[in-house]
Design a protein that fits this description.
- With 359 residues, this protein is an alpha/beta fold.
- It folds into 3 domains: 4-118, Nucleotidyltransferase, domain 5 (2-Layer Sandwich); 130-230; 234-354, no CATH class.
- It is built from 14 helices and 7 strands.
- The strands form 2 sheets. The protein has a 5-stranded mixed sheet. A two-stranded antiparallel ribbon has the order 6-7.
- The model is unreliable at 1-10 and 353-359 (pLDDT under 50).
């Protein structure tokens, strides 16, 4: 970064990048907002290096504003950050800008660069490295397996509703575990009757359910190990188990120091009150944005504490006597839990940064 006295000698450059699956489009502007050029690059290591050289040839590259750092732009963001470049996460242009200027890749890239220049975009992206990235990948597998397992059991119950009466009578009222065990042991033989076809379908669904159960248990073991290694203080916090800890770690990312403050983390989780005042009306409303999985994780923590933690129960009684409703109290508690989690995550981040690279 140059000082004001150096600006006449060195052109400071801001590069905005519009990302796609196979090709990215970059547009560079200088510190006064003048457009310097456009560059197209393939999403390969050679393409990333070419963009870095192109930006360096225009002057001192102050920052790269990249759209989609959590998807198509993840590879480029990691490459540039690894080279010591400043990478800023940029949201897509708002609708008013697109109505006024139209939609094209160069326009989007230029708007990304101008968002960085104006200070509208100033957040650092997740690094996508280390054990938190491993947790994110395992969480994707687990969540999809849970969804598929739920679909399998729902399909089994739907088949039982229309099954032949003898088979329906035998299976109705069984628990999920007994139903899966019973259907998995079917031997339908040749598929010559509706009853045989129903048994065959139920057996396939039951085996799918059992396989997904084993898959989820295996992923759970790895999540328990990884969360205990990365953030033992978080896992041992009252009401937070390995799955909830994994969700909150993924939300914060491998570099929680990128979160500027505790209110910023609360906003990221969607638990900060949003001002909704106008004229003589002074009020706040519920934040419906943020990471909804993190929001749901905090909600589960609050429910556990409301049932088993005496301090939380006392807080509920006191707030209820003051006239607050249960949903309002839960929103306050989620905010308090977010504050506690943020302190743990920041301390965890400092400890991880203090570890040697080989650790």
């Amino acid at each position: 970064m140059t000082t004001n006295g150096d600006l006449e000698d060195v052109a400071r450059v801001i590069v905005g990048v519009d990302t796609h699956l196979d090709e990215h489009v970059a547009v560079a502007i200088d510190w006064l907002g003048a457009r310097l050029g456009e560059y197209r690059l393939p999403t390969t290591l050679k393409g990333y290096e070419g963009l870095d050289r192109w930006a360096a040839g225009l002057g001192e590259a102050v920052a790269f504003g990249i759209e989609g750092t959590g998807s198509y732009g993840a590879g480029l963001a990691r490459h540039l950050a690894g080279r010591g470049r400043t990478v800023i996460e940029v949201n897509r242009p708002d609708r008013s800008t697109r109505r006024r200027l139209g939609k094209s890749d160069p326009v989007d890239a230029e708007m990304a660069a101008r968002a960085v220049l104006a200070g509208v975009a100033k957040d650092y992206p997740k690094s996508g490295l280390d054990n938190v990235e491993m947790i994110r990948m395992l969480k994707i597998v687990k969540d999809s397996a849970i969804k598929a397992r739920t679909q399998a059991i729902n399909q089994m119950k739907a088949l039982i509703v229309t099954a032949p009466v003898e088979l329906r009578y035998k299976l109705t009222g069984l628990t999920v575990r007994r139903l899966v065990a019973c259907c998995g042991s079917f031997r339908p033989g040749r598929l010559a009757t509706p009853a045989a076809a129903t048994k065959h379908a139920l057996r396939l669904l039951a085996r799918r359910h059992s396989h997904l159960n084993s898959e989820i248990e295996g992923v759970d073991k790895e999540l328990v190990r990884l969360t205990a290694e990365i953030a033992p203080a978080l896992v041992h916090t009252f009401g937070i188990g390995p799955d909830t800890a994994a969700t909150l770690l993924v939300t914060a990312g491998s570099n929680p120091e990128r979160l500027r403050s505790e209110p910023a983390f609360a906003a990221l989780c969607g638990v900060n009150p949003i001002p909704a005042s106008s004229g003589k009306t002074d009020r706040h409303r519920l934040n419906r944005g943020g990471d909804r999985q993190a929001n749901a994780a905090l909600y589960r923590v609050v429910l556990v504490r409301l049932r088993y933690d005496e301090r939380t129960k006392e807080y509920m009684r006191r707030r209820t006597s003051e006239g607050m409703t249960k949903p309002e109290i839960i929103r306050c508690l989620k905010r308090y839990v977010a504050r506690q989690v943020f302190a743990i995550l920041r301390e965890t981040g400092r400890k991880n940064l203090a570890l040697p690279a080989a650790a």
